[in-house]
Amino acid sequence: MGLGYIGLPTASLLATKGFQVHGVDVNQKVVSSLNQGQVLIQEPTLDVMVKSAVGSGKLKASLTPEPADVFIIAVPTPFKDGYTPDLSYVRQAVEAIAPEVKQGNLVILESTSPVGTTEEIGTILEKHRPDLDICHRCVSADCEHNPVYIAHCPERVLPGQILKELVENDRIVGGINPDSTQKAKDFYLRFVSGQVLTTDSRTAEMAKLTENAFRDVNIAFANELSIICEKMDISVWDLIRLANHHPRVNILSPGCGVGGHCIAVDPWFIIHSQPELSRLMRSARHINDSKPVHVVERILDKAGRFKKPIIACLGLSYKPDVDDLRESPAIKAVQDLCSRSNSRILVVEPHITDLPAGIKDKAQLTDLENALDKSDIVTVLVAHKKFKSINRYQLKEKIVLDFVNALG
Ligand code: SAJ
Fold first, then answer.
1. Residue whose CA is closest, atom 37 of ligand 1?
2. Distance, CA 192 to ligand 1 centroid (Å)?
3. 263 C-alpha to center of ligand 1: Å?
4. φ/ψ (deg, to 5) at 280
5. Predicted TM-score of the model (pTM)
6. 3-state secondary structure of 107
7. Residues catalogued as catalytic
8. In angstroms, what is the span from residue 98 Cα to ligand 1's centroid?
9. 326 C-alpha to center of ligand 1: Å?
10. DSSP code of 157?
11. Closest C-alpha to ligand 1, atom 34
């Protein structure tokens, strides 16, 4: 259920491992292109795997679910206003599979979710299918009946390395009862080479949120350090390189902010559930969210020296070498820059062909050569590999603001 950045790679991997896979998505375009062996998202080697999976007849897609042994839910779990978790896609997916679920089936939630969501799946299924034995409160590991098994197995793959990590990463599996945990573990052992670690569903949910909150807090430390270093006229990159030589120090990289659909979102699920107790995580979120504003202030400071400067903004995606623009701090910075300055803004993003709404009418998408040629100020917002090979000679007469150390 859900053929996005997680569902589609998972479906195609399972199909190439011999499972018969039926992919479901609410988007007709996604379904049609998949059935033709085509992929709408960029992820290394995914196109080859999808082609082979569809070509072998093991993977097909439609808008509605069919009966199955295992149902995997991999739909988005964003937040609504006030950083409240939005579980509507999970609920809709469960309602969609409810008519097809049979005794003995395994339902797995892979979407990153607030604590308690996997148990809620059981409640929703019970409501729509009172005939089913969900066995919610079953505590023994050797149930004599054949209930519906429900477990959480959070996805942990890194965009850009999804297909490798789907197989090699250790997985955490937590069922709503011990039987569900065991069933889910047996399933993952059929295609995962990493360890499959077991727990209960609430701990599994919290583990995933914790992993991303840990990274968010550590990036916030780096971002705070970068602002302190600017004030003190110290190169934060040299500082981090040196400090990281200590055997127990490993500072992450400062940048333009934290984006994507995971790290900028998931800590809020913890903060929302324990607002009084999540002071550090909340603070990290604010530091990372405010970094694009700081980036823009630094650009405006330099732009003030010109009448109507041309500013090149290199990179728009949420992180290097991906096409994903979701929650991108670079977009926030460009948007803010457009609204606060009279400059002409040239954007270079090699992974897209069109600027997103919000900056489409205010900035111009162009290629790297043209941007470097025309601009007075060059800003690097995302450390794409392509930018690392920029000829320094081309930057000689320009003001350069490299927020991600792409130019070294
Ligand atoms: N970033 C920095 N500095 C760093 C590292 C990252 O500013 O040192 C920024 C990136 O530019 C980006 C954001 O943080 O804007 C997040 O990027 P990321 O590469 O850290 O993580 P994601 O969001 O692509 O994937 C994360 C991963 N989680 C962890 O590493 C703990 C991945 O394993 C998860 O599966 C994924 O979230 C998810 O789906 O939850």
1. 262
2. 22
3. 6
4. -65, -45
5. 0.94
6. strand
7. 208, 262
8. 33
9. 12
10. P
11. 156
Among candidate residues 99, 98, 192, 196, the one with its CA nearest the CA of residue 150? 98
Cα(270)–Cα(268) distance, integer angstroms: 5
Would the CB of 156 count as within 6 Å of ligand 1? yes
CA distance 344 to 118: 49
Are the C-beta atoms of 1 and 97 separated by less than 8 Å? Answer: yes
Of the candidates 286, 267, 258, the one whose C-alpha atom is nearest the C-alpha of residue 210 is 267
Tokens 């490299």 sit on residue: 402
Residue 148 has pLDDT above 80, yes or no: yes
* 8, 153, 158, 205: residue to mutate for ligand 1 pocket, most atoms within 8 A of CB: 158
- CA–centroid distance, residue 157 to ligand 1 (Å): 10
Identify the helix (H) or strand (E) that includes residue 301: helix 279-303
By CB atoms closer than 10 A (0-12, 13-18, 19+), residue 190 is: exposed
The answer on pLDDT for 137 being more than 80 is: no
Ligand 1, atom 25, residue with closest C-alpha: 158
Instruction: Band the pLDDT of 136: cuts 50, 70, 90.
Output: low
Domains and CATH numbers, the chain: 65-209 (3.40.50.720), 235-402 (3.40.50.720)
Structure tokens of 402?
A: 């490299």
Going by pLDDT thresholds of 50, 70 and 90, the confidence category of residue 263 is very high
Query: What sign results for the dihedral spanned by CA atoms 223, 226, 227, 228?
Result: positive
Residue 141 pLDDT > 70 = no
Q: What's the CA gap between 46 and 143, in Å, rounded?
A: 40
Which residue in 90, 92, 86, 119 sits closest to 272, CA to CA? 86
- Helix, strand and coil percent figures for the chain, each rounded to 5: 40, 15, 45
* Best residue for ligand 1 mutational test, from 319, 321, 328, 387 (most atoms within 8 Å of Cβ): 319
Ligand 1 atom closest to the CA of 214, numbered from 1? 31
| Whether the CB of 319 sits within 6 Å of ligand 1 | yes
Q: pLDDT averaged over the chain? A: 96
Instruction: To the nearest 10°, report the CA torsion of 393, 396, 399, 401.
Output: 30
Residue nearest to atom 29 of ligand 1 (CA): 212
Residue 255 in contact with ligand 1 by CB distance below 6 A: yes
The pair phi, psi for residue 242, each rounded to 5°, is -70, -50
43/390 Cα distance (integer angstroms): 24
